[in-house]
Amino acid sequence: MKELTHLERLEAESIHIMREVAAECEKPVMLYSVGKDSSVMLQLALKAFYPSKPPFPLLHVDTTWKFREMIAFRDKTVKKLGLELLVYINSEGVEQGVGPFSHGSAVHTDVMKTQALKQALDKYGFDAAFGGARRDEEKSRAKERIFSFRSAGHRWDPKNQRPELWNIYNTKIAKGESIRVFPMSNWTELDIWQYIYKEQIKIPSLYFAAKRSVVERDGMMIMADDDRLPLQPGEKPVAKMVRFRTLGCYPLTGAVESNAATLPEIIQETLLTTTSERQGRLIDHDQSASMEKKKQEGYF
Amino acid sequence: MSHQDELIATDILAYLDAQEHKSFLRFITCGSVDDGKSTLIGRLLYDSKLVYEDQLAAVEHDSKKSGTTGSKPDLALLVDGLAAEREQGITIDVAYRFFSTDKRKFIVADTPGHEQYTRNMATGASTADLAIILIDARNGVQVQTRRHSYIASLLGIRHVVVAINKMDLVDFSQHAFNSIEAEYRSFAEDLDFEEIVFIPMSALDGDNITRRSERCEWYDHKTLMEHLETVEITKARNDCGFRLPVQWVNRPDLDFRGYAGTIAAGTVKLGDEIIVTPSGQRSKVKAIVTQSGELEEAQADQAITLTLEDEIDISRGDLLCSKGNPAEQSDQFAAHLIWMNENMMFPGRQYLLKTNNQLVSATITELKHKVDVNNFAHEAGKTLALNEVGVCNISLAKPIAFDPYKDNRHTGSFVLINRQTNETVGVGMLDFSLRRAANVHWQALEVGKPERATQKHQKPAVLWFTGLSGAGKSTIANFVEKKLFDLGRHTYILDGDNVRHGLNNDLGFTDADRVENIRRVSETAKLMSDAGLITLVSFISPFRAERQMARALMDDGEFVEIYVNTPLEVAESRDVKGLYKKARAGELENFTGISSDYQPPRHAEIEVNTVGTSAEQAAEQIVDYLTEKGYLLVR
């Protein structure tokens, strides 16, 4: 038989991980953030359990500042596939009016994303949560296990990770503890794009270049997705051909100027680009070990 | 960013097409703190143009702060991930790196070199097909070189690259290179490698990594990258016939029953005859189901779903094998063990053993010897401490299907889990079965347990009466049996005293003999259950652990623990056999309730109180329970 290609191997590894969780964990959930990685993860889940549907719901932690198109895309996708979707919003944060402009990106991300996720996992009592994180994204992720254990307070202890050998995963946990499972740990950004291309996976159009209304701020291009974007003196939205390399809260996600309007063009641009993917995200810049700290505190 | 800039820019579709067919290699790098391992990986990433400008700028910034390379950018900073590691300048944990060239995609497990991180190296090696072992040209073969080589060999890596690094510091001396090669080859004879390649290099400057060095013209073989791109990983391993460990049973509706799993070895085609271990049932492959259509055939490492021609009972943990070449099964093994936890391994302690999809109770019955990972010497020992390697005998609560690790990594490996903390405390590689009958496969019988039980209009059960001597266990058991007999059910009583006259007449009352006593009775009860009988076991069985052992042996719902609760004063006042009197007089040692503990059940299915309840009433209570729970089928 023909030797398996690297994408086929990655796909099989991810499917194996998902099935293991379905077989061994009591109440798993898949975190669905609507981005390209989530789209690939969802496709892998559909494959893993076919002809059954994935035996777990999807969970979207909505910070209320996501691009409007993300929400529309999310609802359309789950409806078409007939899957169960749970949406969680930190209502305390909403009551206190927490947002990226009033409270800054760090507080906003902590309250509306990190805390919200913990609340959601506690509320439903999930003992395992799939995430789409990859080891190539960031240095501390490179050392995280595929099955990553969280204490009852959702903390990650990088010094106390379980040995993970072969494809044998120890899923035993005590009451209150949980596992974050990263089935795409070994994928790279390029693998994700190639797979989307090969499998023709639908992703939000925000990834494709189009004329969009943006303001330039602190060297980033912020899209005016709704009227909550306060304009500072001298700022004026201008229409530019832009696209997004990652999707998140629109005020925290910088656009890049681009003409790439098809998948091959996006891949082409990604391959020829000279800065790494997370640069478009504000939260990684704070300090060089910031992601590791956030993860210890429960950020996915 | 990447290697084929031109093709990407001019014809992205052609590029994508070429990318689709790239092959894949997982390797591990091992070396000591100062051998330049992180620098080597940083160099591979840098030279394959996978370092982004912002990353490189960050490294240049950090190099000034904490770098160790003077004016050159410290490429090791690209890979040392965790904050603590950056501060201490050492690599603590396994980190995985990704890079690719035009020909291959690579995953590198970057593992630490210190002896106290043996477990991390084993982790990285478990999924790798090739090891790069770094040697500092100035120091030659070191103790840690032997250790890294031993662990690589133990974990089943067959291809090794000995990277003789820092050649710039010995003026690229061919003599230095040759003598290191000779020394390495001589000790590696004891190891299980198929191919060893030696490459002189300087990771810091990039000599012979991707670029041929101009400083050592005497070396005319491949650069490291050329070798990594072209090395052929032998397929001989994992070649023990088709193996599909059933991971998940897929039942979307009554019409579809699929067995999902990742193929651990071999290939499978439509119509292939398969045998299920451990049941021994046979069938043929009806379809290989995937979301993108049915396949004609599938091979090792693919995650598939199979359907079979026959409706047979298969569940998670079963292993589907090619008919002509099924896996062995056993519950007693010799295995190599690497200990991974601060709490030591003690023979006799119970652990959970997890293989690919099977989870069973396990005890290490004997540590045959420890292995000194630095010189491969065998040493006597009673325990294994963190990072120690040993050869052990292991006993399981029930047989598992397996292949020796040297034949198949996926069906020959296991991890050990601490039952209290849930930590993974050890990992192992199965060498061989200790039972001579290992190759005798269970005969799949036409008439099975369900058929036998249905014929008798009952569900098999083991009614386990526990309680003090004189509590009334045997009396109640006799009444229960009589009632069941009158109802036309099929029963048998195993009574403690009676069994000791025959089957167990070679056993005394030491702790070890008591455990063996219970074990034999449990196994006998299990056979009777298999025959479809309702078995009544009347045994003091004072310890929870033993009763748990008996329970674990039976199928779910089959074990019914009945606590015959009689206060000691009452039992002693009855003293039907005069034993309490003897025990009080000191004539009987280890007498339960007097000089030895009785541990009452915490979650007995039935508890009967013999004070105020007659034996006959207690028997009625038990028969009612059996009726209610469906053990006695309506005729």
Name of the top-level CATH class of the largest domain in chain B: Alpha Beta
% residues in beta strands of chain B: 25-35%
Distance between the first and last residues' Cα of chain B: 76 Å
Globally, the shape of chain B reads: elongated
Distance between the first and last residues' Cα of chain A:
40 Å
Any guess at the CATH architecture of the largest domain in chain B?
3-Layer(aba) Sandwich
- Number of helical regions of chain A: 8
Give the biggest beta sheet of chain A. 6 strands, mixed
Strands side by side in the biggest sheet of chain B = 7-15-11-12-14-9-8
Supply the CATH superfamily name of the largest domain in chain B: P-loop containing nucleotide triphosphate hydrolases
Specify the oligomeric state: heterodimer
The CATH topology assignment of the largest domain in chain B is Rossmann fold
Rg of chain B: 32 Å
What coarse outline of chain A follows from CA principal-axis ratios? globular
* Average pLDDT, all residues of chain B: 86
Task: Describe what you observe in this structure.
- By secondary structure, chain A is α/β, with parallel strands linked by helices.
- Helix content of chain A is 35%, strand content 14%.
- In chain A, the strands form two sheets. In chain A, strands 3-2-1-4-6-5 form a six-stranded mixed beta sheet.
- In chain A, helix 1 (6-24) crosses helix 2, helix 2 crosses helix 6 and helix 6 (189-199) runs antiparallel to helix 7 (263-272).
- Mean pLDDT of chain A is 88; it is low at 278-289.
- Chain B is of the alpha/beta class and 635 residues long.
- Chain B has four domains: 7-230, P-loop containing nucleotide triphosphate hydrolases (Rossmann fold), CATH 3.40.50.300; 243-322, Translation factors (Elongation Factor Tu (Ef-tu), domain 3, Beta Barrel); 329-438, Elongation Factor Tu (Ef-tu), domain 3 (Beta Barrel), CATH 2.40.30; 449-628, P-loop containing nucleotide triphosphate hydrolases (Rossmann fold).
- Chain B contains 17 helices and 27 strands.
- In chain B, strands 7-15-11-12-14-9-8 form a seven-stranded antiparallel beta sheet, with no helix packed on it. A six-stranded mixed beta sheet of chain B has the order 2-3-1-4-5-6, with helices on both faces. A six-stranded antiparallel β-barrel of chain B has the order 16-20-18-17-21-22.
- In chain B, helix 11 packs across helix 17 (615-628) and helix 13 packs parallel to helix 14.
- The N and C termini of chain B lie far apart (76 Å).
- Mean pLDDT of chain B is 86; it is low at 436-441.
- Classes of the chains: A alpha/beta (300), B alpha/beta (635).
- Chains A and B meet through helix 1, helix 2, helix 6 and helix 7 of A and helix 1, helix 2, helix 4, helix 5 and strand 2 of B.
